[in-house]
Amino acid sequence: MDSIFFLEIVVSVLFMSMVAQTLSKHFKVPIIMFLLLEGILVGPEVLNFIDPSTFGDGLTAIVSLSVAVIVFDGGLHIDVKNIRTIQKTAFKLTTIGVLITFTGATLVTYFILDVDLKLAALFGALVAATGPTVITPLVRNIHVNHKVGKILEIEGVFNDAASVILAAFMFEWIVSQLNGFSAASFIIQRLIIGIVIGLVSGNILKRFLSSGSLVTDQTARFFTLTLVVFSYVLSELLGNESGILAVAVFGIVTGTSNIPHKNALKEFKSDLVMMMLSIIFILLAAMLKFEYIIGIGFKGIIVVLLLIFVVRPLAVFGSTANSRLRTNEKLFVSFIGPRGVVPASIATYFAIKLDAMNILGGQMLVGLVFLTVIITVIMTGTFARRVANLLGVIPMEILIIGGGEVGKILAERFEKRGENVVVVDNSEEKCQRLLKQGIRVVHGDAEDINVLKEAGIEKAKYVVATTDQDNTNLLVSQIAKSKFNLKEDQIVARVNNVENLHAFWDLSIRSMSPQMTTALVLDNMVGKPSMFSMCEVGEEGEILEVRVTNPKVAGKAIKELNLPENSLLLMIRRGEKSYIANGNLVLEYDDLVTVIGEDDAAREVADILYR
């Protein structure tokens, strides 16, 4: 290929990437949707501006390098210390979930399309992956709750690796008739190679970055990129198709480690990933031939729809049966199953090899995989935010300053409510205690603006200052107001010394004093025990205000609702009037209901009233 022509293509692809990024931000949908459409538009099937076949074997090298960096970046954003409570769920999704998806996709393809079982199994292996190239930017864009978001990100990173190894096994089964001991050896060997090389690479990087002051951000980025490529190539040389697992493990080891230059690596890799993602998605989409999809026909669409609405939910609910995920969270995870660049690139690679060996089915495989990618990406990108809002998995971002007993209890309660919580504290001991509870923490001085930024104050819905130092609570509250433009009703502070209350009130900071609050509660307990017992719901209880938006509830009397036994409706606010809740009171749309309940009862009532 002429070098100038090659550079023309690269410049064109980068320009299209900028256009796609602009459209993505404007319409608030994943960039991959636009990259996919652009690739098809400039490919041989439409404008014939870019023909990826002219790259020859170079295309495979470009795709391999890009996928390695993309998967490493996905692992880099996963900190195992902060996700201990969801490790088991994520592990089951990447093992049991993959096997259920593989089996379901294979059977659906075999019976509906009436293709060879081995080819159906190869397709089932390829679509077992839920690509991080789509999921990671998606969950960060719509800010789903931390637990669900991290489960989806971990699943995407590891599913790619599991899917590639499984697909490689199926491909070898087709072309070389693997069976018995050789089949088991194939899988185990690649798992061991990928995991070992990933762990060793991660430890090498940790040692290098911690070696001294001579390592700059630039040196760290260059060395990391070199080591990522080296790890991928070495793993592929020792066991083909094990490279993705190696860089996934490498990324997670790095993301979990507390090492210098980590933020510099994340920023650099994010920019690099966006460029590589744009290049490979546009080039792969340009390779698509309409005849591949037309040849599959309407039955192919049925296969994809069954994958989305039957196989994916079975895989999610089957692998999370005993997890702490709520039903609405499981439903959201079930809906988020887009396929990305890995199945598209591997399918293209296998199709070329099958055609070279005169084995039928390569074109059908490419067509079906691309059809799956197109439908799942467009459906997920278009409806993810609406589904998240409908299922209530977009929580508030709450930043708690202080990991003492008050901050800890508050964080646990917010986490149980499903909110996204981050605690900032300068005590390593307190941070470790919170980490063991599965609560995200940032170790550092809350009076440092950079520490607050790292904790996510720029997107926080509320900042709650709970330290035992009034000066710290006051300063953090002022920073939140003046530097990050949080409103008065978004900041709450604890005042340890009653004499300092006026300093907070003068700055219009909502605050409370533990001493004064205790005195008021004790006052209520003396001579008025019934009033206090009504408000005391215990450590596990909640009092919530819920808006009636469920059309099935509006127009019904309270006594007609099947509410949990350990819950109680206290008051109904309708416009400017308030009503004491009684069994005969008929609820109306947009009523504001005060609910009290033990354990999860209040949340269950909220789910009934709010849709």
Automatic annotation (TrEMBL):
- Please state every residue range assigned to the domain named RCK C-terminal: 529-611
Q: Which Gene3D superfamilies match?
A: 1.20.1530.20, NAD(P)-binding Rossmann-like Domain (3.40.50.720), Regulator of K+ conductance, C-terminal domain (3.30.70.1450)
Show the GO cellular component annotation of the record: plasma membrane
Q: How does it sit in the membrane?
A: Multi-pass membrane protein
Keyword Protein transport in annotation: no
**UniProt-listed Pfam families:** Na_H_Exchanger, TrkA_C, TrkA_N
Q: Which UniProt keywords apply?
A: Antiport, Cell membrane, Ion transport, Membrane, NAD, Potassium, Potassium transport, Transmembrane, Transmembrane helix, Transport
Question: PANTHER family annotated for this entry?
Answer: NA(+)/H(+) ANTIPORTER 1 (PTHR32507), NA(+)_H(+) ANTIPORTER 2-RELATED (PTHR32507:SF0)
Summary of the function given for this chain in its UniProt record: Part of a potassium transport system.
Q: What is this protein called?
A: NhaP-type Na+/H+ or K+/H+ antiporter
Q: Which organism is it from?
A: Methanolobus vulcani
